[in-house]
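Homework help thread (please don't just give me the answer)

Our assignment gives two proteins as sequence + structure token strings and asks us to describe the second one. The first is just a warm-up. Here they are:
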Amino acid sequence: MLTNGPAKRVTICVGEDVHHHGEALYMAVLNFLFYRGVAGATVTKGIAGFGADHKLHTNRILRLAENLPMRIEFVEAAEKVDELLPTLYELAGAGIVDVQDTMVIKAPSVATPPELPHVALRGHAKLMRVYFSENDRWHGKPLYQAITESLRANDLAGATVYRGIYGYGAHRRFHKEKTLTRAHDLPIMLAVVDEEVKIRNYLPLLDDMVQEGLVVISDVEVIRYTHRVQAEEIR
């Protein structure tokens, strides 16, 4: 947790067009920091600059595809920064990571998520299903999106979101998909499979995010867990 006193300021500079697992790299970094309990982070966009390739990038109207510099900056306790840096180095790739000493005069109060071990998924595991409404939000985001991003940031094996077409919950009110209108209060079911220790360690975070809903955990056996080989992995 960030407190008043000595701390570290971390700045990460990457290109706007650089991606990580299908999303903009600066957003991947921001999500990682967000779901690792960092007190706060800011992303700013440069209007001109150059990097290791020594190629000048600008935001001139007729050159919208330029790879403009993106800057992610946050302040945290030295121990927290040491914990985050290995992943930040890996995410930044050819970008720049800069760490400087600073002094916090007034710090916010932030809860730190539990540290989760990274283990292989095989054999006996747990299936967690979370039921809630499509209307539910967390910090301004759709709840299903926030939970999915949080699961990925906390290194759970994977998650799938299902959108219901008909159902009811604790209020005994039916929710159904309407053909000619865009319904926003349909039931959502999010499913996660991983080892029990990782599911259990994640529950405090989930409890904070789901204000009204149902969470159930079942025993499962993982027969096969794999992923497609991406082009960048085989180059």
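The one we have to describe:
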Amino acid sequence: MKILITGASGLLGINLAFEAAREHTVIGVVNENPFGTDAFYVRQFDLLAPNAISYLLEETQPDWIIHCAALANVDTCEKNPDLAYLTNAELPGEIARQVSGLGIPMVHISTDAVFDGEKGDYTEEDEPTPLSVYARTKLIGEQAVADAHPEAIIARVNLFGWSKTGKRSLVEFFYYNLREKKGVNGFTDVFFCPMLTNDLAGVLIAMLEKELSGLFHVVGSVCASKYDFGVAVAEKFGLDAELIAPTSVKAGGLSAARSPNLTLRSDKLARVLGYTLPNYETGISRLYELYQMGYPSLIREDFISAPW
């Protein structure tokens, strides 16, 4: 299959592209952070430009599209709400409209942050109650995709992994600070169900192969506090977990509201796929294996040799 992946320089996009390129032809679309690789095709393109989407689809003729591109920094969205709306709400709907007209299966990547985190243990039937500009625009994007392309997959995710900048993931925050022996805060009252990007890639491809459609929670099968997650990272990498101070999110000094309990149920997808989704504990072990391969340094290069 030929897969078009938007946001291919982002945290999910770059790892998804490398994983998918093992068995498929991949075209990765980037905007401000171009790079070269011998693993898949890279196309620099501004998806917000006039007629950009129709031109890109005509040029690439994909069999599947996975839309990862987003304005994902929560605080940046608070400062730039118009750009957040264009990128996270309008763009996905326009892509879905054009892709639907061509009969192309699509995955739209959304977020667990559409919930306010007051109760946790959310299913796909629970009513979203977004707190931030980021969350609100991502929810509007979900609705736009569902309206324009009812057969599309909408995947609410929470993820971690190695990124091209080294600054896009919570695991990188813990790893790089602890490696430098810097103290950090770990929120004891914020809970989530993260999945390693490389594991998430395999799940997304499996969903396309099964021709699924509709809304799914595509998160790790085990949940944890962000403090406990940081301790698990420290222990796996042989770093000093005592440098992580157990802290309440209320004392964190964050400008945008955060949802405290984003534990999501993934039972619906597990039943369809026939297996329990990967968890963060096995994901951290695989993350460490990638580290031993030199993967974090590799993907930060301007030209990335195929890592497999």
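TA reply:
I won't write it for you, but here's a hint about the kind of observation we're looking for: The mean pLDDT is 95.
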